[in-house]
Amino acid sequence: MKNHTFLLFATILFSSSIIAQLKPVKYADNNQTLNGLFIKSAKKSPNNPGILLLPAWLGIDTASKGIAENLSKLGYHVFIADIYGEGNYPKNTTEASKIAGHYKTNYAEYQKRINLALQELVKSGAKADNIVAIGYCFGGSGVLEIVRGHLNVKGVASFHGGLSKDPARPTEPTTAKVLICHGGDDPYVSAEEIATFQQEMRDAKADWQMIYYANAVHAFTNPEAGNDNSKGAAYNPIATKRAFAHLQLFLDDVLKK
Q: Distance between CA 203 and CA 248 in Å, rounded?
């Protein structure tokens, strides 16, 4: 029964209905056109909770669309951000690494693009003071920039994201709650990076938690990542299921529904 339930969940997550329910939203950063996606909550609520979703480094993909649809069924307005903009979408991982690296280095630009998407989520119906941001891989790094930039969210959840920041940057107190869902065998995030991040959270006096998943490497929530852990990035359905359950607990704790 448990296997059947998970297979049903996976089928719903990546169903063709995603395309029909997600609505394109065109917005801009000065002269740069951005193309986000919005899906409204399937449940009515006077609190209109919202989730800003930052996708992985290839941009808006099947995985992020599926997650957005599933979250809408749970009662959240969801907006998937477009960080790169029209004409700048990477065609492969080499291009993605380069452009994502630009935003990681030029974090103020990243924060600006994220904040523009956050504004679109509010325009689409979410309450400005009732929002959580979630991100995957590159997007997982992005939600930490939300915390560091003091953008208006109640909390953030990062899935197999990078954790580091330039040590020259100051650490300031934050009220945003933080959830880190991390592959226990992720080869791309060093023990030193983890320790430094955890100290950053302590110094920021953050309400934070970090959960490790056994036998999980980078990109463990993405079914398109393959299943070979030796490559450093691979899908892990058990870790994915557990991480989604932990996200639901986090959302229930942080947002008003």
A: 27
Amino acid present at 138: F
Distance CA 146, CA 250 (A): 17
214 Cβ contact list (under 8 Å, min separation 6): 184, 185, 239
* pLDDT tens digits, 179-215: 999 999 999 999 999 999 999 999 999 999 999 999 9
Give strand ranges (E) for 148-248. 155-159, 177-183, 208-213
* Distance, CA of 174 to CA of 207 (rounded, Å): 9
Report how far residue 244's alpha carbon sits from residue 204's, in angstroms, rounded to the nearest whole number: 26
Q: Which residue has the tokens 């904040």?
A: 115
Tens of pLDDT along 42-86? Answer: 999 999 999 999 999 999 999 999 999 999 999 999 999 999 999
Looking at residue 21, its pLDDT comes to 87
In contact, 219 and 236? CB cutoff 8 Å: no
For residue 89, which amino acid is it? Y
Q: What are 102's strand-pairing partners?
A: none
The SS3 call for residue 230 is helix
For residue 137, give the 3-state DSSP assignment.
coil
